[in-house]
Write a structure and sequence with these properties.
mainly beta, 11 strands, globular
Length: about 130
């Protein structure tokens, strides 16, 4: 079992920045990929970014955040980060991290992720 805890959400003005953190504990040796998803009120959960846990240089982003968000990880701290810049009101959502045990390529499909955090609210005001 892997336990994930997010932090770093909050209220920020449009154009501002936030850094989200997701700390993993438990059987972290099971983790192959880590991802961030988000869900805005009334909308479906959306893939945001993912990273290969062991090969940190392999990442994937949804088109709408490319050039603005950066995913990274610190294996020594069992933590994945999402640095968000140039935030827009459309980025407002609950952001959740997730862990995938599969040794395959990065997936943007939520059903491929085995473990989930409780989420952290990000609100971007205009």
């Amino acid at each position: 079992q892997v336990h994930l805890v997010e932090s770093g959400g909050g209220l920020v003005q449009a154009g501002g920045s936030l850094r989200l953190s997701c700390a993993a504990s438990g059987r972290t040796s099971d983790i192959n990929k880590m991802a961030w998803f988000r869900q805005a009120p009334g909308k479906e959960r959306e893939f945001v970014a993912a990273i290969n846990w062991r090969l940190g240089g392999i990442t994937r982003y949804v088109e709408s955040v490319k050039g603005r968000f950066t995913i990274s990880r610190d294996i020594a701290k069992n933590t994945v980060y999402l640095q968000m810049s140039s935030l827009k009101p459309d980025d407002t959502a609950v952001y959740s991290c997730a862990a995938d045990r599969r040794p395959d390529s990065i997936s943007s499909r939520s059903q491929h992720y085995d473990y989930w955090g409780q989420g952290t609210q990000v609100t971007v005001s205009s």
